[in-house]
Write a structure and sequence with these properties.
mainly alpha; about 120 residues; about 80% helix
Length: about 120
């Protein structure tokens, strides 16, 4: 018997639900109480922002260079080219992030359709 089964047998489903709600909202409430006393321009917030951007960047690079699932079928040269193209379009043509993401997504979807129906394109 695992821990959740033991708690359900002891407290019942409603007890589990109340425990989960309390555990979640206690931390949210503390965050609301402390938020007014912390400066958003402080060093800790700037550090947290840097860490957040670094994690997003690292996960993006990991997804491009070491993909899992269907993305593994797309050659790395195409994945990197799409990324470079989207960044270039975003910087030089002043495209918004949403436009760049739509452009990159449509390129990847087009490549997937090409792979699926490549027998129609062969001579």
């Amino acid at each position: 018997m695992n821990l959740s089964d033991g708690l359900i047998n002891t407290m019942g489903w409603w007890g589990m639900f109340i425990g989960v709600v309390l555990a979640t909202y206690i931390w949210r409430g503390l965050g609301v109480l402390l938020a007014g006393h912390i400066s958003q321009n402080s060093e800790i917030f700037r550090w947290l922002s840097c860490v957040t951007y670094a994690m997003v960047g690292a996960l993006t690079v990991k997804l491009i260079l070491f993909p899992t699932g269907l993305l593994m079928q797309v050659p790395i040269s195409f994945r990197v080219s799409v990324c470079i193209g989207c960044v270039a379009l975003s910087l030089f043509l002043r495209m918004s992030l949403m436009q760049s993401l739509l452009f990159g997504s449509s390129l990847m979807a087009g490549f997937g359709l090409y792979l699926q129906y490549q027998h129609f394109f062969s001579i």
